Every structure is written in structure tokens, then in C-alpha cells.
Task: structure prediction
Amino acid sequence: MDYVETEGDTIDQAIETALTRLGVVRDKITVDILSEGKRGILGFGAQKARIRAALRKPTIELTTPEPAHETTVVIAAAPKPIPDAETTAAGEKAKGVLDEILKLMGIKASVQAKAGDKTDEVVLEVSSDNGGLLIGRKGQTLEALQYLVTRIVGERQGSEGPHIVVDIENYRDRRRKSLEDMALRLGEKAKRQRKTVTVDALSAADRRIVHAALQDDPWITTKSLGQGSYRRLLIIPEGDRKGKEEAKAALLDKQESKSQDKGGRPDPGRSSRNDG
Amino acid sequence: MKELVRYLAKSLVNNPDAVEVQETDGEGAAILELKVAKEDLGRVIGKQGRTAKSIRTILNAAASRTQRKVVLEIIEER
Result:
């Protein structure tokens, strides 16, 4: 079996290196984590994350070849990814809706529908001279456009439609990078001062980025507390027992009043749509 | 502006024929009054007012290039 071992500052980076070296996409490999790596304190004691990436065997090989029953081979073949026809159709429709909204706003812009990173994701890339206006403060206009387009497209074809993302001039990428920088900076601050740091009000999607950015740091726990627009993200350093207990007490309170809302760290595998 | 609200409202509701938008001029601001069928009220307002907020955000962005402000009011009656 083919495999490579790679290093990186984070596990994600190590996986990324392995993927480029093997020249395959993520779901074609299995990853063994050899060492999680440590970020260290002020650069001391930092350890690189190490992983071993092995090529996944094609599913068809796993079934014993039985020439007499070709049908069994067909059934055992790898599950097909969700057909893209629905996503493509939704993308086209979403593009039409966004075109119309922009036209009625009196803004000259062109929209291009592209496939996203996931199979059920469509990215609508807007180019316009009025980019800043369409993004708005902290991206709120962009967020509003995306929300309304999703509502209008999703409304007509059942509840679980494809995920539609509206982006302008790579704003989403830039925003994610700046949030990740901020997350790491606040994480260092929390560790240095041994005090829990509370992050300003963030949208659900933004909070998710911060959680994800800090989840590999063994010295830090992140939690979200509060409801609705009062929801805040806490960065709790290892050893700040007070902050941790406060968070736990508040969590217990909430669980009593609302049994299903756990309010903890969101599972990174979940989509942002589900993130409270 | 009026057309924008009409388009968004008609796209969101189940009953597009009942959508009405009226524009009145207030002091320094245009007031847009949106009326929809009673059962569609929730659709233009949304969970915790999120849809209504989004419509207002987009209106404000569109209006920011003109000098006039725009206020959206969702009228509940009938």
C-alpha cells in the first residue's frame, strides 16, 4: 500500500502537504496521526504535527471477484457522490435570483456560478465596481444577500436544498483568514494571562471559524455561551479553573432549562447552517 | 427601491398576488409599506425577524448611493 509521511504546523497543513505529494483528493486517502504537534508557548517547545497518509484502496477491490455474478460487483461498487444535477440547477436558479436583486438595487454586477468545495455547495461569485457596498459592514450586506437567495431558492424545492454561498472579491477567504489570525492572537493572550478571553459578538459562521482555528491547540478549550445575539465565544486556557467552572455552571443551567441545546463546541463536521 | 421590495416579497411568499408595496415620502426618508397575505407574514419576517432584517440591510445598501434613506414597514392587517 502506498503511503507518505508528512509534517506541518497543524494536522490540516500536514494533510494538505500529503495530498499534494500524492496528487489525490482528500477522500482518496486515510490519515493516521503520528503526532498532534504543539504550538508551544511563544515559539518554545513547538512541535510539528506528523501524519501518515495512505492511499485508500478502490472499493471494488474489496469485493471478491465473481465473474458469474456481475451484479454483485455493481452493487458493491463505491457509493456514488450525490448527483450534481440538483445542485447545478439550484445554482442556476440562485444566479438568476441574485442577478435580479442586483439589477433592482441599481448595481452593475456580474454573477458567476461555480461549484463549491463540497458536493452540495454552489458559490456565486459576484464581480462589481461596488464591491464594498455589497459587502457592507462586517459583511452584513453580503450575509443578507446570501440569506435571501437561499430562502428564495430553498423555499420552492423542499427544506434540504444545496448550500448556496455568495462571495465578492474573495471576501469570504479574506474574512476567514483575519478571523483565524484573531483567534490565534486571542488564544495566545488567554494562555499568557491565564485568563478566559471573551470574543466580541460574532455570527454563527464566524464563531465556527474561531472554534475550528483553536481546536488543535491542546492548551485551549473554546465554548459558546448565551442565546441569540447575546451568544459569545469563550477561549479558556488550560489551568483557568475559574473560567472553566463558570462556563460549566452556565452550561448546566442551560441544560436544565432547555434539555436539547448543549451549546458546546460545534462539531467541525457539521455545516454552518446547523450551528446555533 | 419599490420594485426591489416587491420582487423579494413575491419570491418569498406563497401567495404572490397578495403582495402590495406602497411608497410614501416622509421627512428625508422614503417609507415603503409592504402588505402580504396574513399567512405569508411569517415568510417576509422570518425566524427572529431575520428575513425582514436582511431585506432592510439590502435596501439600505441600495439607498446608500442616493441621498435619501429608506424605511421598510411591514403592515399587519386584514
